[in-house]
Design goal:
Alpha-Beta Plaits, 190 residues
Length: 190
């Protein structure tokens, strides 16, 4: 049974001028570059995403729902303003890329519906993935690494956040009841 640790980063949550550097696909970690940051900013279609408390709840609920619907197991979820960690396992033969992409698609749909903003980009193009190799690795992630994160933390056996958006029942909440801050939903052009 494959077990994976996926990390989904919020769209534009790590700028090229970050003092710690930035990552370019297929190149690796690069030094901070204010000119590249300005170029990326000018080409961006949407403002940066910061996962608010409500958005973190949606991410956990959506992750749980997609896993339950497909017979996968969500062991743990840890959300922060800039990214989401998930530990997921499944029994059937299914490449990890398909699992990760399905989760991202469902989470994007859930956030878009809650914010009344279909088609908005919520995550960076790719996402990190690490195969959990053994019980010791899983225990480290669930008992040490993920609990150190400062956002919403959920693990198997705990109650889920309140589902004010109808994610688990497939119902859509009325736009006024969704509670997402407007700063997270404005387009760049405003």
């Amino acid at each position: 049974m494959p077990v994976y640790h996926f990390t989904l980063h919020a769209y534009r949550s790590w700028s090229a001028d970050n003092p710690r550097g930035y990552v370019r696909r297929r190149t690796g970690i690069l030094r901070p570059d204010p000119q590249k940051a300005a170029q990326y900013d000018s080409q961006a279609k949407w403002p940066p995403v910061r996962f608010t408390t409500q958005m973190q709840q949606i991410l956990v609920l959506g992750s749980y729902d997609v896993c339950q619907t497909r017979g996968w197991r969500l062991h743990m979820a840890a959300a922060e303003p800039s990214h989401l960690h998930l530990i997921v396992s499944w029994r059937q033969y299914l490449p990890w890329q398909k699992v990760r992409q399905r989760i991202k698609n469902v989470l994007s749909l859930s956030l878009g519906r809650a914010a009344s903003q279909a088609g908005r980009q919520w995550f960076v193009r790719e996402a990190s993935r690490k195969r959990v190799t053994d019980r010791e690795h899983l225990d480290h992630l669930t008992n040490s690494y993920l609990p150190k994160h400062r956002g919403l933390l959920w693990r198997e056996g705990q109650p889920l956040p309140e589902d004010r958006w109808g994610i688990l029942g497939g119902r859509r909440a009325a736009p006024a009841a969704r509670g997402l801050p407007s700063a997270a939903t404005k387009s760049k052009k405003t």
